[in-house]
Amino acid sequence: MMSYLDFEKPLAEIEGKAEELRALARENDEIDIEKEVAALDEKAERLLEELYRNLSPWRKCQVARHPNRPHCLDYVEALFTDWMPLAGDRNFADDHAVVGGMARFRDRPVVVIGHEKGTDTKSRIERNFGMARPEGYRKAVRLMDLADRFGLPVITLVDTPGAYPGKGAEERGQSEAIARSTEKCLKIGVPIVSVIIGEGGSGGAVAFATADRVAMLEHSIYSVISPEGCASILWKNAEKMREAAEALRLTAQDLKALGVIDRIISEPIGGAHRHPEETIAAVGDAIDEMLSPLVKKSRKTLVRDRRRKYLEMGAKGLAA
After folding, report:
1. What global pTM score does this model have?
2. Which CATH number is associated with domain 62-319?
C-alpha cells in the first residue's frame, strides 16, 4: 500500500478516486468508467510531475525518509549474487543496523556494507531504524580488513539518520568506532564506492562514505545533522526544520556543486518508492561505472588519490 507524504495529499485524493472507480468496475461489469479513470490518471501524472519538479530541501528530506523507499537489503537482493552475510564485530555483538558480507556484483567478487532500516515495525525495531551502535562500525572495519586482505572492492550503501546516541553506545566507544571506520576507509588499498540511497546522517554516514567515489540518489540527503536537530540547536525550536534544511545544503544537487559527492543518480518521477526496480537498476549501473576505472589502479595510487580527495575538499572555497 502506497504511503503519501503531506505535500502529496492532493495526489492521494485523485489516485484514491481513480481506485474507487476501478473497484466499482470490478464489482459490476456493466459500468463503463474507462474514460473517467483515464482522465484521473492523466491528471494525477501531471500533478506528480509538478510536485516533484522543484522539491524544496525539506520535501527532499521527506522523500529520502519515505517508508516505501527501497532499502539496503532490497539493493543487495536485486544487484548481487552469491550473497554471504557475515555477522559480529568479534568483540561484543552483532549490530543488525549494519549488514555486510561477500557477494558478486556483475560477476566481480566484492564486499558489501550498508545500513538497513527495516520495512515494518518489527524489523525497524530489530534494525534500530538504521542507527548503528559501535559494534556495527567495528563489524564494518572487520569487513574492510577482509576486503583489503583478499583484494576485493568495497561497495557501501548508506541510509541512516545517524549513529545511535544511546548511553550504552557511548559507553562502548561510539565516537572512537566511527573514527576507526572512517580511518579504515582511508587506509585500505582496494576501491571503495559509496551510494547514499536515502539518508546520510552525520558521522554515521561518513564512516561508510569516505570512498573513492560517492554518489547520491536524486532525492536523498547527506548532512552533518538532521534538520530537526539543527533547528533545535540554532533556533531552540524543532519546527524550524524547513529553514534548517535550506541552510544545511544537504541535497544531492547542493553537494555535487560543493564537490562533496561525485555524481547524482536520477530517480523516477515521484521518487524511488514509486518505481523501486527502476531505481535499483540505475544504482547498479552507476556503481558499475564508478567501480570499473578504479579496479585498474594500484593499491598505492588508490590510497594516495583517496586521501588527496578528502584533504583538498573545500580548499577552493577557503582560498576564495
Report:
1. 0.91
2. 3.90.226.10
